[in-house]
Amino acid sequence: MAETQTLQTPVVAARDRAEESDAPARSLWRRMEPWAFGLGSIVVLLLVWQFLPSFVPMKAGTKLFFTVPSHIAGTLWRMFATGSVWAPLGVSATAFAIGLGLAIAAGLPLGILLGRSTVLNAMFDPFITAFNATPRLVFLPLLMLWFGIGLWSKVAIVFLGALFPLLINTYEGVRNSDKLLINVVRSFGANEWDIARLVVLPNSLPFIIVGLRLAIGRAILGVVVAEFFGAQDGLGVIMVRAASGFRVDVVFAGLIIFAGLSLLMTGLVQLLEKRMSRWRPDHANAG
Amino acid sequence: MTGYIQGRNVGLTFRPPNRAPVRALGGFDIEVEEGEFLSIVGPSGCGKSTFLSILLGLIHPDSGEVLMHGRRISGPGSDRAMVFQEFGLLPWRTVQHNIELGLELKKVPKEKRRAAAARLVSLVGLTGFEAHYPHELSGGMKQRVGLARALATDPEVLLMDEPFAALDAQTRDLMQVELLRIWREAKKTVLFVTHQIDEAIYLSDRVMVMSKRPGRAKRIFAIKLPRPREYEMRVTPEFNDLKLEIWNTLKDEIAA
Amino acid sequence: MAEETTVRQSFAARYRNFLLGALAVVLFFAAWQAVFLWVPFNPLFITKPSLIAAGYVDLIESGELFHDLAVSSVPFFLGLGAAVIIGVPLGILMGWRPRVGYALDPLMTIFYASPLVALAPLLVIFFGVGVWGKSIIVFTLSVFPFIFNAYAGVHAVDRLLINVVRSLGGGEWALYRKVIFPSVLPYIVAASRVAVGRALIAVLVGEFFAASEGIGFAISRFGDIFAMDRMFGCILTVMVIAVILTEGIRWAERAAFPWRVGR
Questions:
Q1: Phi, psi of A140 (to 5 degrees)
Q2: How many CB pairs under 8 A join A and B?
Q3: Is A164 in the same domain as A35?
Q4: Which among A97, A133, A215, C229 would be 20 to 30 A from A265, CA to CA?
């Protein structure tokens, strides 16, 4: 079951190291260096992009496809200033919220159930492995036939995308539950529901939050792709229409909005995680 | 004959998947009197902790029966509570809420839980730490919480499964003194499983030595040392004679 | 009494989980087939295993399926190959030269966190939906796992081993070959598992758009003409391929890097 494993290693590991090495004894420049280089590279990239047309002669055809950061920023500004962004964004956000909500409502109980029952787990395992390995996108044409073009086919693809990370991480969290703690609450007369409430759920929360973070990414991906192919409104629809009308700036503006939403949601989850992890030994350092 | 707690011919075999079965207990007999402090010592894996789990009602024996007040034990009950070796505190709960756990499961109203927890916090000497999380406590303090939690439901019998094994030697000595004080105040029957002969003698009215697996009661020693017991008692000749005798009984059972 | 029980377990007990799983799959397809004995069957809306099987025989005999798979596999492997060739050295460089790491880390994080698939319509307009257009979509989506895992892999290199090789007189190249590459390799294989999933998404997105062949196009076209049996056949094929790829990589990880098991 992939999700938890992929998460432990890549990005996080690299960043933790970077933070570790921030010893206070270092000089100001040594401490600022990562920031300077990081910001610098972004600024340089933007500048080169902005002034590329001034230095490199372009054919008229190529120019049609080309946009510069200032133009994108202007478009983004106009979309918000005129309020034209809100209606499509609302449509996309509705599909996102319903799909993710349903995935949470289904994934958590199912994950707990599979984690507590070895028989059910063995029976569901082939299906979960298969669905998790397969890009859920492959079902989009089918879902469009079943749910029509519009909100519900989007909800369905978001749901399918977000369900498995949540389910698998909940399952891993449940499996990881301390047997001793389960025995402790049982010794005080706890039933299966009490065990889930008092031990299994709190113990799984860190796993579930990792799953939630992944699920948000998948859900946004689901909204975007579903709107590319099977919708009549939404931010994704605006982007496809803009692309076919050579409004490259609008496509980039859409990408920035989706990326911003993704960062915002992930940030909210991190906030939630921090609030709920006061009991954890690593909390003080992590804060 | 109706004893307070009686185990008759208790046997239990574990059958772990993909491994050979382990016969933990076989033909185990025990008799516990109300209010006494009984320690069980025995070689590793002799089934002493298994017996406590059976008595607690978490697992059921394959053969024989365990009775309390003449009734067969069929599951956990609020007349028994366990203090676990690895503490078993819920890491996401504060000291206070850990102590309230058993009361919460008995659906005791909030105010009564608060009051009981407050009383126990002071009994085990944790005043001022009510709002701390387990990871902020030392090992000795964690086990004080474990003890308070077990006492909170006011059980008749306290089961202690090597409760001080995870502590360092000095903390351990201190906790033994504390335990005797609390035992005097709370007036419970205690079944105490340990590896340490010193500890068993110092605390107990009787010490049972168990055979190696499958565990049976090999011999029971009555500890006639006067109470209240002082720490100095551990260096008296009587204490050392007992220690030697118990060691001689135990050593044949230890497979090196 | 207990000692006599045999240690060796029965076949059923040993392969219990596998048998339960297989049973569940068989039951699922049987129930799917049987449910239409009671529920009215609408071939424009749903299909059943017997029809899928029949349609599958057609797909294979006509050679359509293999043609579409072959068409889709070219950009899949081209894009992934390019992602490895560019992503891995870049990640190693970022890890090995701190300033390159400082400079590129935030930028790459922004890209990695963005739903890059949103760039697909643009890429399609730029590069078309032929082999190159699809390959570039595959590359765009799958390069970042390689960059980040190689980056993390270099950070995980044991500094002691570096000193050992240096003290034995090894130069920069020996360092890369003897220490860095072997340490980073497991990270790259792990990355390939993530990247394969993203590459499959990329191929499908590219082919849903405007392609005229390929497995994604086939699924979308069979949907358009309500050929549910063949649509399901193609979907199941993609599922099987996805499982074989990801589980295959997982198996290879366990076989090649047994010391990483449990991490």
A1: -55, -50
A2: 58
A3: no
A4: A133
**A12 inside domain:** no
Same domain, A178 and A234: yes
Q: How many CA atoms lie within 13 A of A135 on its CB side?
A: 25
Q: Are C151 and C95 spatial neighbours (Cβ–Cβ below 8 Å)?
A: yes
Output the pLDDT for position A282.
64
Please name the residues between 162 and 191 in chain A that touch chain B, using a CB distance below 8 Å: 180-181, 183-190
List CB contacts of C151: < 8 A, sequence separation 6 or more.
Answer: A10, A14, C91, C92, C94, C95, C101, C105
- Report d(CA A227, CA C205) in Å as an integer: 12
**Hey, is the C-beta of C224 within 8 angstroms of any chain B C-beta?**
no
Strands B157-161 and B206-210, bridge-based pairing: unpaired
Hey, is the C-beta of C118 within 8 angstroms of any chain B C-beta? no
Q: Mutate which of B99, B100, B105 to test chain A, going by most A C-beta atoms within 10 A? A: B105
Regarding whether A227 and A194 lie in a shared domain, the answer is: yes
ipTM: 0.85
CATH, domain range B1-79+155-256 = 3.40.50.300
Q: What's the pLDDT score for residue B2?
A: 58
Q: How far apart, in Å, are the Cα atoms of B85 and each of B93, B124, B171, B213, C136?
A: 19, 17, 14, 21, 59
* Residues sharing a CB contact under 8 Å with residue B192, sequence separation 6 or more, in sequence order: B37, B38, B39, B40, B160, B163, B200, B203, B204
* Residues A89 and A148 placed together within one structural domain of the fold: yes
Is residue A236 assigned to a domain? yes
Same domain? For A236 and A264 the reply is: yes
B199-245 residue pLDDT tens: 999 999 999 999 888 888 889 999 989 888 888 888 899 999 999 99
Q: Mean pLDDT across the stretch A266-274?
A: 86
CATH code assigned at A182? 1.10.3720.10
Q: How far is CA C7 from CA A63, B18, B214, C13, in A?
A: 76, 8, 18, 12
DSSP letter assigned to residue B211: P
Of residues B16 and A284, the one with the higher pLDDT is: B16
The answer on pLDDT for C13 being more than 80 is: no
| Both structure tokens of C61 | 């005999």
Q: Per residue in B22-58, is it b (16+ CB within 10 Å) or e — as a string?
A: bbbbbebebbbeeeebbbbbbbeebbbbbbbbbbbbb
pLDDT digits (tens, 9 = 90+) for C71-121: 999 999 999 999 999 999 999 899 888 888 888 888 888 888 788 888 888
Contact B133, A279 (CB under 8 A): yes
The answer to whether residues A44 and A118 belong to one domain is no
| CB-nearest partner of A202 from B53, B57, B92 | B92
Task: Give mean pLDDT, residues C142-147.
Answer: 93
- Please state the domain extents for chain C: 53-260
Q: Measuring CA to CA, which residue among A46, A262, A267 is closest to residue C107? A: A46
CATH superfamily, region C53-260: MetI-like (1.10.3720.10)
Structural domain that includes position A47? 25-57
CB contact under 8 A, A236 and C118: yes
The residue type at B51: F
Split into its structural domains, chain A has a count of: 2
| Cα torsion through B42, B46, B49, B50, rounded to 10 | -150
Which candidate from A183, A198, A278 shows the least CB-CB separation from B58? A183
Q: Are A152 and A89 in contact (CB under 8 A)?
A: no
pLDDT at A286 over 50: no
